[in-house]
């Protein structure tokens, strides 16, 4: 068995462990999303159609919702941008988001394993997740307009 052949088996097992039925759309969504993190639901639907042929956008939304509730998929919602989905879950990582194009990249916690789960004053909350988003311009957008990037940098200093 090749390593690629075991991917669907692993996904089937993860779906079953999460109490979800194994269906072709669920497998296709998880498989496609694993290769294309931070995709929007519409991007996932387009990618999955390339694998399965016909699948409705609503079916993809339903799969993403069920998988997010089962913690197989993480939904991130950067302000002013459409929700994005990824299969990297459970490690409390953060994101870099480009203000212009929306490119999103993973970034690990800056000071170790999930230190931001201990706020300076928890106000009695039982904190189980922290969401940190670093905003700026990605390298491509920086090159496209260096004057805008310099302006943003100067604003950050003020």
Automatic annotation (TrEMBL):
Key words of the record: Cytoplasm, DNA-binding, Iron, Metal-binding, Repressor, Transcription, Transcription regulation, Zinc
Essential cofactor(s): Zn(2+)
MF term (GO), any: transcription cis-regulatory region binding
SUPFAM superfamilies: Winged helix' DNA-binding domain
InterPro entries hit by this protein: FUR, Fur_C, WH-like_DNA-bd_sf, WH_DNA-bd_sf
One cellular component (GO) term of this entry: cytoplasm
DNA-binding found in the keyword field: yes
Details of cofactor binding: Binds 1 zinc ion per subunit.
Pfam families for the chain: FUR (PF01475)
Residues annotated to bind Zn(2+): 98, 101, 138, 141
Record has Methyltransferase as a keyword: no
Protein localization: Cytoplasm
CDD domains reported for this sequence: Fur_like
An individual GO BP term: negative regulation of DNA-templated transcription
Family to which this protein belongs: Belongs to the Fur family.
Protein's recorded name: Fe2+/Zn2+ uptake regulation protein
Species the sequence originates in: Kutzneria albida DSM 43870
Source organism phylogeny: Bacteria, Bacillati, Actinomycetota, Actinomycetes, Pseudonocardiales
């Amino acid at each position: 068995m090749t390593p690629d052949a075991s991917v669907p088996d692993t996904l089937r097992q993860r779906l079953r462990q999460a109490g979800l039925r194994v269906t072709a759309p669920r497998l296709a969504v998880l498989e496609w999303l694993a290769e294309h993190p931070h995709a929007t639901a519409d991007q996932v639907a387009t990618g999955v159609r390339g694998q399965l042929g016909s699948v409705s956008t609503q079916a993809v939304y339903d799969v993403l919702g069920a998988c997010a509730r089962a913690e197989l998929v993480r939904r991130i919602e950067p302000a002013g941008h459409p929700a994005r989905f990824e299969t990297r879950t459970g490690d409390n990582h953060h994101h870099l988001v480009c203000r212009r194009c929306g490119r999103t990249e993973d970034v690990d916690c800056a000071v170790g394993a999930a230190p931001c789960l201990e706020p300076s004053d928890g106000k009695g909350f039982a904190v189980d997740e922290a969401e940190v988003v670093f905003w700026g311009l990605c390298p491509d957008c920086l090159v496209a307009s260096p004057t805008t990037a310099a302006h943003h940098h100067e604003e950050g200093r003020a």
